[in-house]
Amino acid sequence: MNPVLSRTLRSLQRNILAGVITIGPLFVTFLVFSFVLGTLAKVGMPVVQFLATVFDWAWLSDPWVQWLVGIVLTLAVLYGVGRLASEVIGSRIISLFETGLERLPFVAKIYTSVRQLIDTMMTKKETGQRVVLVDFPIEGHKSIGFLTRTMTDKTSGRLLAAVLLPNAINPTSAFLQILPIEKVVETDLSMEQAMSMLMTGGAVGPDSLVYSNPEIVMVEIETTFVSNGE
Question: Residues 54, 140: one domain?
Answer without folding.
Answer: no
